[in-house]
Design a protein that fits this description.
Layout: H1 2-12, H2 16-24, H3 28-39, E1 46-50, H4 56-65, E2 70-75, H5 78-91, E3 97-101, E4 114-120, H6 129-139, E5 140-151, H7 157-177, H8 181-184, H9 187-193, H10 197-206, E6 211-217, E7 222-228
Parallel strand pairs: 1-2, 1-4, 2-3, 4-5
Antiparallel strand pairs: 5-7, 6-7
Helix pairs in contact: 3-4
């Protein structure tokens, strides 16, 4: 499954940003900014963006940590990382972002390395959610925060029906228009498998996060899981 998802994201890399704009009607920028704010990243911090895609969250983090900070963007799609690198050279040329091709289930970083972390639309696609949260906990410094943004199936039946109608009536036709219908067919099944907010909170606590809070947004069709590692940040 991991190789399959990896292949999908390599194929959609050229139109990834355009699709995000169309599929969210441009609103994904607001939600990503919320995640960056909840991560509590600040000037001079060393921060991590997991499943960084084309670099949207990593670039936002770079602007927040400034010239004295350091950002690491991690993804398993080499094509998306290439897109992110080219984009950062155009939008934020100072050397603040290191693009790393790696699996979030086995991060190539030392323990207690990062002051803050984000993940946007990645947790839903990992093979082992508990393991990815465990790895995130390991590499965060004591007292650090992480903010994880993703789609969800809302609990309200009417909203669930609306979401499915939106996926079937808009997302699939747009993807089909771009020749990517099969690539985007994974979204509905991934939503069905994805743990709801309170289940995510429980998984986070099981791997050691002292504080875990899930904030539903967009009527529960989206959510941000905010995590804190026990201790005093240095």
């Amino acid at each position: 499954m991991t190789n399959e998802i990896q292949s999908i994201f390599n194929r959609i890399a050229p139109v990834y940003d355009q699709l995000n704009d169309w599929l969210s009607l441009g609103q994904h920028r607001i939600w990503k900014e919320m995640a960056v704010k909840w991560s509590a990243a600040k000037s001079g911090d060393t921060v991590l963006d997991l499943c960084c895609g084309s670099g949207d969250l990593a670039l936002r983090l770079a602007r927040r940590v400034g010239a004295t900070g350091k950002v690491y963007g991690v993804d398993f799609s080499c094509n998306l990382l290439e897109t992110a690198s080219l984009r950062s050279q155009r939008q934020y040329p100072q050397p603040a972002i290191a693009w790393v091709e790696a699996d979030v289930l086995n991060l190539p970083f030392e323990d207690n390395q990062f002051n803050a972390a984000t993940m946007g639309y990645g947790l839903r696609n990992v093979k082992d959610i508990s393991r990815s949260l465990q790895e995130l906990h390991r590499v965060l410094k004591p007292g650090a925060k992480a903010a994880i943004l993703d789609f969800h199936r809302p609990s309200n039946p009417q909203l669930r029906a609306f979401q499915q109608l939106y996926l079937d009536g808009f997302v699939v036709p747009v993807a089909n228009y771009l020749g990517l219908k099969e690539e985007y067919a994974y979204i509905s099944p991934s939503l069905e498998r994805f743990p709801i907010g309170k289940e995510q909170v429980e998984l986070a606590r099981q791997v050691g996060f002292a504080i875990a809070t899930h904030y539903p947004i967009v009527n529960g069709m989206m959510g941000v899981l905010v995590l804190s590692k026990l201790g005093i940040i240095s």
